[in-house]
Amino acid sequence: MAGTPPFTRFLASLMPGPKKRISLTARRGPAATSTPSSRKTRSLLVVDNRPLQREAWAEFHTAQKRFQKAGRDLHRHEEIDCPAYNAWIHRTFPVWITTLRELYNEVSRKKHQVQTVIVLAELTGRSLKKLWREQQEYDADPEAFGESDADEREDPGDQNPSDNHDDPSSANGHADRHSRDDRDQEFDFVRTALRPSTTARDLYRRLVQHLHPDRGGDWNATRQQLWHEVQQAWAAGDADWLARLEAEWESANEVLGPTSPVSRLRRAIAEFVAARRDLERKLREYRRSQEWRFTLSEKKRPILHARTYANFRHDVHVLQEQLNHLNRTIAAWEKQAPSKSKPRTPTENSPRRRSKGPSIGH
């Protein structure tokens, strides 16, 4: 074609050539073609959760250490500091403790008597002095007071037998039966409220299977203490307590580890955090008391001595003021009112007194 003139090449390009076959798939468009890129394929995607497990395991260890520290502080305060403080205060201030105890008992007794008389006066409308006199007579001889009161009451056996309705269908029978039904419903409600939940029951069963002495293993002090705590948690119906004990057992026996599921580790972390929050609530109250870290503050003992002495003096003064107020109230009730006798007016039949002065006529 190199020696062909340009005009001939132009004519050859205009001449019709052989027909090309067009496939049906090409006519249907590109959506109908089956190419390897458009075919549906299934592949297994492997997710490496080891970084998540390591992070959860580190948080689990942190939560466990914080909970154990709070438990040690609580145990030290309740088992060591409080007994030591009580022994020291009884050894240092025996007279003040005895005086305070006697004053408190006397104030409590008289306050109860005075409040009882006031309440009875408000309910019955009777005089406070009469009620106080009856109260004193009753305290002096309760048996005699009870017998006289029983004689004044009407004996139900002396009533007319026709008036007594022993039939359960009577009004009294209905009232008694309804009261018993109400009490039974109240007890049923209490039993239902104290009934452990399904979660607590499942946790208790798993822990019993692990810790029961018949299951084998070393029955040491730690296992025995955990067993007693499980029984206490079950008696209280506390599912959170049982979950925390299960997490402690699993971590101690290497059931929970770095390869444990992330969900199980997160659940154990939440249990430890909730348990530590409960312990911290108690510790906040204990930190404000004088027993807090008593055995660790030997150098501050003189300051504590002065503060305790001042507290004893204040408490005794307050109780003495209360006792004086009660004594004044009781003395006012026991004081007899002066007799108001009116002078007698002379009448016609009554003899007249002679005047001692000299008479005018003589």
Number of separate helices: 12
Report strand %. under 5%
**Main sheet?**
none
Structural class: mainly alpha
**Given the C-alpha coordinates, what overall shape results?**
elongated
Distance between the termini: 199 Å
**Using only CA atoms, what is the Rg?**
47 Å
Please state the average pLDDT score. 75
Total strand segments = 0
The arrangement of helices and strands along the chain is: HHHHHHHHHHHH
Roughly what percent helix?
55-70%
Describe this structure in words.
The protein is an all-alpha fold and 362 residues long. It is built from twelve helices and no strands. It has a domain at 50-151 and 257-334. The protein has helices at residues 6-14, 24-28, 50-92, 94-124, 128-140, 142-152, 171-194, 198-211, 221-236, 239-252, 262-287, 301-334. Helix 5 (128-140) packs across helix 6 and helix 5 (128-140) crosses helix 12. The chain is elongated, with a radius of gyration of 47 Å. It starts with 5 loop residues before the first helix and ends in a 28-residue tail after the last helix.
Entry keywords:
single chain, 362 residues, mainly alpha, disordered C terminus
